[in-house]
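Quick question: who can interpret this fold?

. . .
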Amino acid sequence: MVLAVTSPLKIGVYEKGRFLEELSSEEKTSEILPSLFKEICKKYEIEALFYARGPGSFMAIKISYIFLKTVSVVKNIPLFAADAFVFNGETPIKAVGKLYFVKENGIIRTKKLELNDKETSPLKLPSVLDKTLFSKETEPLYILPAV
């Protein structure tokens, strides 16, 4: 399970849906994702890939998708995705400045909000990986705030 839409990047390893291990890094997704996966592949046999497809950092989402899609195709491992709100209790996700990504009535958009860190929830790896929250629709959610 890869959460790379905000910093730090988090990868959760699960067996039969139960959390086993977390790897985390503040480094750039492009720099650290291959290294973390190399480490995981030494210890575990990957049967499926899951990731948060956005919204969040445009570049981190793009790199995560390309990397995971490549691993999926090359190793013939299924790839599944969910939106990032699944991992923070549906609270706003910081975009830029006072803009936040919000999900209202199933629609994700940006909204100007006056929030502090206590009013948002960080993305968290779940203790149990509920596969019903994920779909085979894996293309990234590229929601870019207006500039």
The CA atoms of residues 87 and 124 lie 5 Å apart.
